[in-house]
Amino acid sequence: MRTRLNLLKYSIKNALIGMARHWTLVLSCAATVFMTMLLLGLFLMTVLHVNRFSDSAMDDLRIHVILEEQVEDPQAIAQMEADILNTQGVKQAVFSGKDQELELMIQEKGEAFAAYRGEQNPLSNAFFVYPEKEKEIDAVAKRLKSLDGVADAVYGGQSVGEMVKVLTMVKWVSFGFELLLFLLSLYLIYNTIRSAIYSRQSEISIMRTVGASSSFIRIPFLLEGTLIGLLGALLPCLFYIFTYPVLYQAMHGMFFVPLFKMIPVNQMNAWIGWSLLSTGAMAGLCASLLAVSRYIRSSR
Amino acid sequence: MIDLKQVSKSYPKGIHALTGLDLHIDDGEFVYVIGATGSGKSTLVKILNAEEIPDSGSVIVDGVDVGHLKHRKVPKYRRNIGCIFQDYRLLPSLTVYENIAFAMEAVGASKKEIKKRVAEVLELVDLKEKAYSYPDELSGGQQQRVTIARAIVNQPKVLIADEPTGNLDPEKSREIMSLLEKINETLKTTIIMVTHDSAIVDEYKKRTIMLDAGFMVHDFAKGGYKSL
Ligand SMILES: Nc1ncnc2c1ncn2[C@@H]1O[C@H](COP(=O)(O)OP(=O)(O)OP(=O)(O)O)[C@@H](O)[C@H]1O
Ligand SMILES: [Mg+2]
């Protein structure tokens, strides 16, 4: 037990010594991590936003269900609401009375329709219905249309369906890119750390001739790799944590149109912070583990 | 203590580095291994050090079957074997003190023990004032004395030296030899020393084993090149 504690203490000490005495190697590795994490962070921010925008764009998709004229009394409307909610794929239904419908129409088509206010209102009552899955909006609309008492069920039409498809694709493509970039940065970091350890390969074999166990040799290198990863990720992390709020302020929290709300500062900073730091540390750890294990195995 | 029976080792391309070697060395002996270049001396050292695995035969050192040691078990075995190489093999990024201490750290010794013991061996090899120098700031003889200090710091039962005086002038070689004799006499450490240096072999007479093309051709208890 005591021995183990000592071994751990020495491992940590040796990791620090190793970093101090090979600081040029440490710097070059940390610089690689820095560059890749900077890129990864930028991309992560983009992907998160694309995701959010497409989600919020899809959130707005709703079906306008216009009831038949004779559906007037509260009881009938309540019955209608129940029927709509019972329809497969419906998440939510919001009532919109004929007066409200007229106001919407006036908003949309102009004051000319204001004359119809009151008893003259030719419109029917309606519901705004939200589907469970945006992709199924078309099928849900068809089902609603076939209900008794429903005159029509419309949504943004063909263009909305297309938009949903495009946004879903954009989501997947950007996610794929992010993954690719992630793997690329792992590879880049692995390569720099491996070549750094390569230049210390003779150290590893000397350590073995002195009777150091594999783990005693390995642990300092793993600690070094992890610290280098953290070190390299820290700067990009801070950079984004300080620049994102500025950007957010400058854009008034939205991407040109209110529909595209930006991700709140706190949430974004937490995301960027954790993902960059953990990716950096993991990449450093894995890279040094792979590299050092190879050299330990090759020397007896 | 050390017992080799019918040990053979060949390298790729059909080089027979050692053939049917029988060798017994008792506790506390001091043995030279001599022979022309390529005769298998370093191969013998590497087998004793578990760096190379013999093709056949048995190698027993201090009760350990070295020929069948798993990769994982090598470090523990090596702590009982001190090794000295012609090319020193010191860690360049560590000071003299740290290099010697490293061998003790690897065993998990406490900081206090390390401090005390490293001071002792530095005293023994007469390098106290160089404790905080780096290896590349030392002369060859001084570096060799550091490797000796490192080799004996864990009080091994066996010390193996592959041409420890190979890079040194006669005067420095004598320094190393007296140091090894001192270790052999005071600590009762078994020493196996590979050498090319006939002057040393003649001056400090010990049991001498001669290899030739992988065969043991002489084993003289009295020693000395002249008696061959
Ligand atoms: N790793 C290796 N791979 C292939 N052949 C080797 C290897 N190591 C040694 N040999 C060969 O084995 C033979 C014995 O080599 P060894 O190093 O044991 O000789 P030596 O007696 O130590 O020579 P020297 O006095 O020059 O150090 C030589 O012919 C050498 O070329
Ligand atoms: Mg040799």
Keyword list:
heterodimer; A: alpha+beta; two-stranded antiparallel sheet; 9 helices; 71% helix; elongated; B: 228 residues; alpha/beta; six-stranded mixed beta sheet; four-stranded antiparallel beta sheet; 32% helix; binds adenosine-5'-triphosphate; binds magnesium ion
Tell me what you see in this structure.
The complex is a heterodimer of chains A (300) and B (228). Chain A has 300 residues and is of the alpha+beta class. Chain A is 71% helix and 10% strand. Chain A has nine helices and six strands, in the order ααβαβαβαβαααββα. Chain A has a four-stranded antiparallel β-sheet with strand order 2-3-1-4. In chain A, strand 5 and strand 6 form a beta hairpin. In chain A, helix 1 (2-21) packs across helix 8, helix 2 packs antiparallel against helix 6 (158-198) and helix 2 (23-59) crosses helix 8. The longest helix of chain A is centred in the middle third of the chain and has 41 residues, at 158-198. Chain A is elongated, with a radius of gyration of 30 Å. The mean pLDDT of chain B is 91. The longest helix of chain B has 17 residues, at 170-186. Chain B is 32% helix and 27% strand. Chain B has helices at residues 41-48, 74-78, 96-105, 111-124, 140-152, 170-186, 198-203, and strands spanning 2-11, 15-25, 30-35, 56-61, 64-65, 81-85, 158-162, 190-194, 207-212, 215-220. Chain B has 228 residues and is an alpha/beta fold. Chain B has seven helices and ten strands. The complex binds adenosine-5'-triphosphate and magnesium ion. Magnesium ion binds next to helix 1 of chain B.
Reading side by side through the largest sheet of chain B, how are the strands ordered? 6-7-8-3-9-10
Strand-residue proportion of chain A: 5-15%
- Which descriptor suits the 3D outline of chain A? elongated
Extended strand count of chain B = 10
Pick out the low-confidence regions of chain A: none
Oligomer: heterodimer
Helix content of chain B: 25-40%
Q: Radius of gyration of chain B over alpha carbons? A: 17 Å
Shape of chain B: globular
- SSE string of chain A, helices as H and strands as E: HHEHEHEHEHHHEEH
Structural class of chain A: alpha+beta
Indicate the mean pLDDT of chain B.
91
Report the helical percentage of chain A. Answer: over 70%
